[in-house]
Amino acid sequence: MECRALSAIHQQHHYYFEDRDTLDIDDVGALESFFKKNKIDVCINAAAYTAVDLAETEQENAHKINAEAVGNLASICDAYGAQLIHISTDYVFNGENQNGYVESDKTDPINIYGLSKCKGEELAIQKNKNTIIIRTSWVFSSFGKNFVKTMMRLMSEKESINVVCDQTGRPTYARDLASAIFAIIENENVTPGIYHYANQGVITWFDFANAIKDICGYTCQVNPIPSSSYPVPAKRPTYSILQTEKISKLKGVDIPFWKDSLETCINLLRKP
Q1: Quick check: 137 and 92 in contact, CB under 8 A?
Q2: pLDDT at residue 20, as a whole number
Q3: Domains located in the chain, CATH noted
Q4: What's the sign of the alpha-carbon dihedral 225, 135, 173, 150?
Q5: Is 113 a catalytic residue?
Q6: What H or E segment, with its residue span, contains residue 164?
Q7: Phi/psi at 271 (nearest 5 deg)?
Q8: Do 194 and 95 contact (CB within 8 A), yes or no?
Q9: pLDDT tens digit string along 103-161?
Q10: Residue 105 DSSP class
C-alpha cells in the first residue's frame, strides 16, 4: 500500500499492484501468465505468511508461502529477465548478538516463521542471481494491522496495558522502506544481494508504546513486563538490531529517525 501511495511521485514507471486475490504467488501458472502478458523489469515481493505464532502449528503453510513460492517467483523472474526485490526479516537471526547484525552474519532463526523466511532468502538467491533481498524489522504503517495501530486502539479503550520491555529492535516505517525501494529501482548500479533497512534508533517495545502514548496524548498507563510474563507459542529474538550502513550508502536512500517517522504515521492516522 505504501508503494502504491508513492507511485504517483515516481511516474516514470508503469506499475502493477497485485494482492493474493488478484495474483497468488503460490500459483505458478498464474505467475507465468502474468509475466508473459506484461513486460516486467522489476518485481517487488512483499507477500508473506506473517502470523508468527500461528506458524508454529501451520508450518507447511508458512514454508509454502515464505519459501517455496519465493523460489518459484525468483525462477520466473529469472526466466523473464526481471529483477526480484524480496522483503525479508530480522527474524532470520537468533537475537543474541549485542552488536547488531550486518548482512553477512550467519542466520540462525529461532522460530518457524524465521526459518521459513530464511529458506525463502536462500531459494531467491539460488534461483535468481539478480535478486535483492531487503531485511527489515518492526514494520509499522497507516495501512493494515501493526503495533502502532494496535497500541492506539488499546490505549484509547483501556486505563492500563502491559508491554514487553526486554525485546530490543529498530522500528521501520513502511513508507520509508517503500521510498528506499524506489531509490534502488531508479539506481542502475545497485549490486544484487542482501541489504538491511530499518529506521535510525534502537528501542524496546515498551519504549515504542510510550512514544505512541506521548505523541497521541493518551492517559493510559503503560506497564513494562518481561517476555516471560507474556508467553506466546513462537520465541522472539531478544536483540535483533539490523545494521544499515550498507544500504545507507546507496544513492537516494534516506533513513529517518524512528520517532520522526512515527509522528508522521500517527498524524496520517489521526486525520479526520
Answers
A1: no
A2: 84
A3: 2-269 (3.40.50.720)
A4: negative
A5: yes
A6: strand 160-164
A7: -65, 135
A8: no
A9: 999 999 999 999 999 999 999 999 999 999 999 999 999 999 999 999 999 999 999 99
A10: S
Q: Which three cell numbers stand for residue 25?
A: 504467488
Terminal-to-terminal C-alpha distance of the chain: 20
Q: Identify the residue whose cell numbers are 530464511.
A: 118
| pLDDT recorded at residue 3 | 55
pLDDT at 14: 81
**Ranges of the chain with pLDDT below 50:** 8
Catalytic choice (101, 113, 173, 197) = 113
Virtual torsion, Cα 140, 141, 146, 149, nearest 10 deg? 120
Question: Is there a contact between 75 and 256 (Cβ–Cβ < 8 Å)?
Answer: no
Write 31-36 long-range contacts (CB < 8 A, 24+): 31/72, 31/73, 31/76, 32/76, 35/76, 35/77, 35/79, 35/80, 35/82, 36/80
Residue 53's contacts (CB-CB under 8 Å, 6 or more residues apart) are 232, 233, 234
Q: How far is CA 211 from CA 105, 149, 225, 259, in A?
A: 31, 13, 17, 8
Rounded to whole angstroms, the Cα distance separating 77 from 204 reads: 38
DSSP code for 6: H
Q: State if pTM tops 0.85.
A: yes
A 10 A CB-CB count for 114 gives 29
